[in-house]
Amino acid sequence: MQHFRHSWLPRQELMELASIESGHLSLIDTLTHSDSGLYNQDFLSYKLYEETRRATRFGESLSCILLAIEESPLREGLTRVARVLRNESRDTDFPCQLDDRSFLVLMPSTPLGGAESAAARVFAQLDQLPLADRVAGPGEIAIGVASAEPGILMRGGELYDLACEALALAQGAEDFPIVSRSKQAAGVGGSARRVVERDTLNARIGT
Fold first, then answer.
1. CA 106, CA 46: separation in Å to the nearest integer?
2. Whose C-alpha in 103, 144, 161, 176 is 20 to 30 A from the C-alpha of 3?
């Protein structure tokens, strides 16, 4: 997975980027990925900065789901991934494409349990779909979930860093395709690891 750059863009700079790079394109075209229609990295960098500030100021939870697929999806597979992420995202969530094999859903006002449940639903659907020339095998789809409890002070890129740590653990454990890490209140354990095991995913989504 290509490492996401921490280029936090204030609103004015984001608008300038859109006006400079878009030309005749609309703002939506500038801030979405051309292949999938999901939000792109420039938009995500701004929203991570904005939502981190908002969550810290108002004492709200903030979570994200970081998805990696071992083999780059074909165009039809990319469309399926985008559809699943949109269907499992609320109106307040932000599904983004980082590169051809990795995706992130930013979930404001969402605790760890809610993000884990969403991740389980996403995995259960993608695990059954042909994304390249076949259905993905064990260990080829991994998800890292990151969350910060209400009132936690965070740096701009800290949530993404936690998600990367969780994803690395998930990619290294075939039987545990979803791993989550959370930043908790001082004195309550700091970062915590929780694992969703492959055999329990159906139970987690109620099937």
1. 12
2. 176
Q: DSSP code of 57?
A: H
The answer to whether 40 and 104 are in contact (CB under 8 A) is no
Strands in 178-183's sheet, in edge-to-edge order, are 94-97, 102-108, 62-69, 141-148, 178-183, 192-196
Residues in the chain, total = 207
For the stretch 65-95, pLDDT in tens is 999 988 766 677 888 889 999 999 999 999 9
Total Cβ atoms within 10 A of residue 205: 15
DSSP 8-state assignment for residue 174:
T
CA distance 96 to 104: 5
Amino acid type, 173: A
Element (H, E) at 168: helix 158-171
Given a cut of 50, the residues of the chain with pLDDT beneath it are 2, 4-12, 22, 24, 135, 138, 186-190, 192, 202-207
Half-sphere exposure (Cβ direction) of 115: Cα atoms closer than 13 Å: 35
1 in any annotated domain: no
| Per-residue model confidence (pLDDT) at position 202 | 42
Q: In total, how many domains does the chain have?
A: 1
* pLDDT computed for residue 186 by the predictor: 47
The DSSP secondary-structure symbol of 199 reads G
Q: Is residue 19 part of a domain?
A: yes
